[in-house]
Structure formats: C-alpha cells, structure tokens
Amino acid sequence: MLTEYAQGPNCIMHCLPSGSYDPQKHTSWEACARAELSEEAHLEGGTWHCLLPAGHVGVPETKWCANRFTPFLCIGPRPAMQPRPRDAEESTIQVLSVSVSKLRELMGAGTMLLPSLATCQWALTRLEAVHAPLPA
C-alpha cells in the first residue's frame, strides 16, 4: 500500500503501485506491473497473478475516460536490490505495510483511488479462495 499525492483531488490518497503501459518500454502488462512495483514500492520478485481472465482488455477506470487497468496480485515480493528511480512527481510516495484488517478499513474509508480499491477486493477474493479465512 502506498500514500501518494493525487493531482485530480489535490490530496494524499491511498493506492497501490500503478502506471501506464508503454509498448516501447514494456514487453507485457505484467512487465509494466513489475516495473511499477520496483519504482514506486521498491519491491521485486514474488509470484504474480493477473486478476482478470486471460485475454481481457482491461477494466475501464471511469465512464468519462478511455483509460483501462489490468490488476495484478504479487505474493511474496522482496526489497528491490536496485529499484527503478521514481519520477519527480512521485517524491511524496510513502510505502506502508498494512494488515488485512487495516486494508479492509482503508477500503471503506473513502481515501483510496478506485482502481486500487477494486484491485484490493479482487486480490482479497483470490486469496480467500486459496487461504480462507485470511489472517487479520
């Protein structure tokens, strides 16, 4: 979990590492997600799971823009040995480690960006299917 300045609402919000796919920089959506995890959270590795069905074109972020997102769950990342540098506008990022109960609290607090909120819900659902019940 991160806290980061969000330009639209002009405030600090909770969110997950995220970014834009660039076919000139990334070989896949997962490669993009891995790069963002390294850059924003300074984490790498782990086991990766796409939270959408194979072939899905991505979830629309909102009804008034064409942006789409592809959510991933990374289990067991480790500190990055050489994290990718953060962009200048990412200087406010704070990395948080939160329990499942704290995550659920944040999800209901109205302080999380919608794509991150949806990704957290899908990730919890996936984890509960494998490890029910989840620890607090």
How would you describe the overall organization of this protein?
The chain is built from 3 helices and 9 strands, in the order ββαβββββββαα. It is an alpha+beta fold. It has one domain (2-131): Alpha-Beta Complex (Nucleoside Triphosphate Pyrophosphohydrolase). A 3-stranded antiparallel sheet has the order 2-1-9. A two-stranded antiparallel ribbon has the order 3-8. A two-stranded antiparallel ribbon has the order 4-7. A hairpin with a 7-residue loop joins strand 5 (59-60) and strand 6.
Quick take:
The chain has 136 residues and is α+β, with helices and mostly antiparallel strands. The chain has three helices and nine strands.
- Determine the strand fraction and express it as a percent band: 15-25%
Query: How far apart lie the N and C ends?
Result: 16 Å
Query: Treating each run of at least 4 consecutive H or I residues as one helix, how many helices?
Result: 3
Rounded mean pLDDT score: 94
CATH superfamily: Nucleoside Triphosphate Pyrophosphohydrolase
Q: How many structural domains can be distinguished in the coordinates?
A: 1
> What is the CATH first-level class name?
Alpha Beta
How are the SSEs ordered, and which strands pair?
Blueprint: E1 2-6, E2 11-15, H1 29-41, E3 43-44, E4 47-50, E5 59-60, E6 68-69, E7 72-75, E8 78-79, E9 94-95, H2 100-107, H3 114-131
Antiparallel strand pairs: 1-2, 1-9, 3-8, 4-7, 5-6
